[in-house]
Amino acid sequence: MLGPDGVGGGTAVRSPKTAELVAGTLRRMVVDGQLKDGDFLPNEAELMAHFGVSRPTLREAVRVLESERLVEVRRGSRTGARVRVPGPEIVARPAGLLLELSGATIADLMTARAGIEPMAARLLAESGTDEAFDELDQMLADHVPSGWQTGRLAETTGDFHQRLVELSGNATLTIIAGMLQEITVRHTAFAFKEGRPVSKADFDKLMRSYQRLMQLLRSGDGAAAEAHWRTHLDVARNLMLEGLENVKVRDVMG
């Protein structure tokens, strides 16, 4: 039976505010590509006329998008709101906080990572382009070695792992990996700092594993690439976690 508000059980259904409807329309324009990263929204007068809303309502709609980090507003600027299409970093910070609050360990994180990257390696082997493989090869030739030489190996290897997933072409895997990226890099740097410096022999072994992955990717053997990368991550996890098995995410994030 309908309640006095016209809803069964007397629970009211809240109608969206006008500002939320305007924000929703603008959001859809970004998603559909009508508004691209770097574009400025039309000026206030145009938007007010287009949507038939007041200035306060329009500004509330823009604040909604700003809170979602879909637009950037420079206060005092006459250029207005600019579209900023976010990357995985938009969920990285909140996810890191949730992991800290849940008491997650670094072991949890690395296990999750081992479930993501091998599948990305399979997808990349099966559908990757020469351009994608060349880009990864270039990172192994320059970027990763520079990290070992400058003490930033955690960051440069992290970049390689993230780019591997991005080039797989799977948007969902990319977002999840990006979400975990900062925490993973911080853990790796934390482990190095805690007495696991990377020797020349260890670095050479790491590079051989990376180069074997590249061979498998270029061969198009998805199953072999997935298996190799899973083994690589398992070995790395065991080495990185030795003596640090119960370290919490919060201890690494600081």
TrEMBL record:
Coiled coil: none annotated. InterPro entries: GntR_C, TF_FadR/GntR_C, Tscrpt_reg_HTH_GntR, WH-like_DNA-bd_sf, WH_DNA-bd_sf. Keywords: DNA-binding, Transcription, Transcription regulation. It comes from Mycolicibacterium moriokaense. One of its GO terms (molecular function) is DNA binding. This is GntR family transcriptional regulator. SUPFAM superfamilies: GntR ligand-binding domain-like (SSF48008), Winged helix' DNA-binding domain (SSF46785). Residues 16-86 form the HTH gntR-type domain. PANTHER family: TRANSCRIPTIONAL REGULATOR, GNTR FAMILY (PTHR43537), UXU OPERON TRANSCRIPTIONAL REGULATOR (PTHR43537:SF5). It comes from the Bacteria. It holds the Pfam family GntR. SMART domains: FCD, HTH_GNTR. Gene3D superfamilies: GntR ligand-binding domain-like (1.20.120.530), Winged helix-like DNA-binding domain superfamily/Winged helix DNA-binding domain (1.10.10.10).
